[in-house]
Amino acid sequence: MIKKRKIAEAAIPTSSMADIAFLLLLFFLVATVIDVDTGIGLTLPEYVEDLNTVEVPKDRMAAVLINANGDVLLDGKPISVFQIKNNIKPRIISKIDLPKNKKLIVSVKTDRQTRYNTYIQALDQIKQAYFETRDEYSNQNFGRKYNDLPEKDQDIVKEKIPIIISLAEPEKTNK
Amino acid sequence: MKFQKRRANTKQEIPTASMPDIVFMLLLFFMVTTTLRQVDVLVDYKLPEAKAIEKIENKRLISYIWVGKDNRIQINDSIVQLKDVEPLMYAKRQSLPNVIVSLRIDKGTDMGMVTDIQQELRKAYCLRINYSSTIKI
């Protein structure tokens, strides 16, 4: 009798493929950091050597002063950081229909010893005031929140309520 | 008489042949979305919290400056001096004209430090900045 040779099947075992793929998957799952960068955006003014100052009418300005202890002065009145929003908001609203060169300017000035956290809190309050005003304006005129508006309408709102935050020029220090 | 249980002829197994394909698809998704961290952060910092924060849509435009609790400044992979900020950032702006500088500054830092860095950035014409902060609930 002739022994029949078994022909070995030439196949790569694929049952462990899933395991290998899972291992790789796990590695990437662990290594992935889906952290979106979030923060308060701002555009700095250009640097000029000697600046010529422009007089701005008092009612256009909202001056926020923060001293080293974290006390806040808004137009000379001492208030707490968390009151900034409610103080500034009505002033932004009152200037919505004014022409572009009459909109509110919020000026922020800090001491060199002010803590960064306090400054961010103040900036946050100002931004919140602007964002809420924008949302309310969009709701009244377009029936939707600002972020849900199409780009064309967003531009209209942006034009009406521009965010103008001026960082005070640092005082010359003798180092 | 022999009773024979009638069994359904259909197989009761979940077909696993396409499992690797599914897993590979997931894998590909994560491979594409992953940005492996290129820099080691050498400074110790804690970001401030804020409510009115925006997302930066374009990650490729971002360049970071870290400032730690001990007032050390880090750009790229190394600790730098304040006077080195301007040339470094100017070089960055030349390779990436509309760069957004994300400032990751510890919340206990003095504002003097922050203003100094801002002045350097203004000199380097990196005008779009972003104070990195985490969301406050």
Short description:
Helix content of chain A is 36%, strand content 15%. By secondary structure, chain A is of the alpha/beta class.
- Give a short account of the largest sheet of chain A: 5 strands, mixed
As residue ranges, the low-confidence spans of chain A are none
Mean pLDDT of chain B: 83
Task: Evaluate the radius of gyration of chain A.
Answer: 29 Å
Q: What is the CATH level 1 assignment of the domain at 49-135 in chain B?
A: Alpha Beta
Structural class of chain B: alpha/beta
Distance between the termini of chain B: 75 Å
Largest interface: A-B, 45 and 55 residues
Q: Let me know the number of strands of chain B.
A: 8
> What best-fitting shape of chain A do the alpha-carbon axes yield?
elongated
Oligomeric state of the chains present here: heterodimer
Question: Helical residue percent of chain A?
Answer: 25-40%
CATH class descriptor name of the domain at 58-129 in chain A: Alpha Beta
Tell me the radius of gyration of chain B. Answer: 26 Å
N-to-C span of chain A: 105 Å
Measured by DSSP, the beta-strand proportion of chain A falls in: 15-25%
Query: How does the major sheet of chain B shape up?
Result: 5 strands, mixed
CATH architecture descriptor name of the domain at 49-135 in chain B: 2-Layer Sandwich
Order of helices and strands of chain A: HEEEEHEHHE
Helix content of chain B: 25-40%
- Walk across the major sheet of chain A and give the strand order: 4-3-2-5-6
